[in-house]
Design brief:
five-stranded antiparallel sheet; 171 residues; mainly beta; globular; single chain
C-alpha cells in the first residue's frame, strides 16, 4: 500500500512537471510593434548598469526615428551580452512611452543633453529623465505625438556594449 501511494504521487506529478515550460538562458531579441497601449521588456538582472549614451536618427521618407540607448556596467564600461533589465509601457491619453531601467543608478548624460537630442523630433514632443537613488533605477519618459507606434528590442554586446533600440513610427 505504501508503494501505491508513492506511485500515485509520481503519476500525479508528471503532468505538472510537463506543464512548466523550460526557462531560457537568454532573453529573446524579437520585437513587437506597440500601438495605442502596450508593454515591452527585456534584459537581464545584474550588479548595476549605466546609461552611457542616447542617440537619435531619423528617416523622414520612411517616417521612422530610431533611438539607441547604450548600456554599460556600473562603472560605465562595456557590457558584453544582454543589457540590464528594462520595462517599457506605451500609454495613451496623452500618448507617452515610459521606460524603467532597473539597477541603473548612473547616467553619463543628463536631462539637458537628452532634451537637445530630441529637438526637432518627428515623434517626440518632450522628454524627461530621472534617477532614483533609492530604487537604483533610471526612468526615461518620452511624450509622443499622436498615432506614434513603438517597436523596442535589445541588442547583445559583442564588439561594442549592449543596447536597447526604440523605433518610433509616425503616420
Amino acid at each position: 500500500m505504501k508503494y501505491m501511494g508513492c506511485l500515485m504521487a509520481f503519476l500525479l506529478a508528471v503532468p505538472a512537471i510537463a506543464a512548466v515550460p523550460a526557462q531560457k538562458n537568454k532573453p529573446t531579441a524579437a520585437a513587437k510593434i506597440l500601438s495605442g497601449e502596450g508593454v515591452s521588456f527585456g534584459g537581464l538582472a545584474g550588479t548595476g548598469f549605466t546609461m552611457m549614451d542616447l542617440r537619435r536618427t531619423a528617416d523622414t521618407k520612411k517616417k521612422i526615428e530610431r533611438v539607441v540607448i547604450d548600456v554599460g556596467d556600473m562603472n560605465g564600461g562595456l557590457v558584453r551580452g544582454w543589457p540590464g533589465y528594462y520595462y517599457a509601457e506605451l500609454k495613451k491619453n496623452p500618448q507617452r512611452l515610459v521606460i524603467d531601467f532597473a539597477q541603473m543608478p548612473n547616467a553619463n548624460i543628463d536631462q539637458t543633453q537628452i532634451a537637445s537630442r530630441f529637438k526637432g523630433s518627428m515623434a517626440v514632443m518632450k522628454s524627461s529623465m530621472s534617477l532614483d537613488p533609492v530604487d537604483s533605477s533610471l526612468n526615461l519618459t518620452l511624450d509622443l505625438k499622436p498615432n506614434t507606434k513603438v517597436r523596442m528590442y535589445q541588442v547583445a554586446g559583442k564588439k561594442t556594449t549592449s543596447k536597447v533600440v526604440i523605433d518610433l513610427i509616425t503616420e
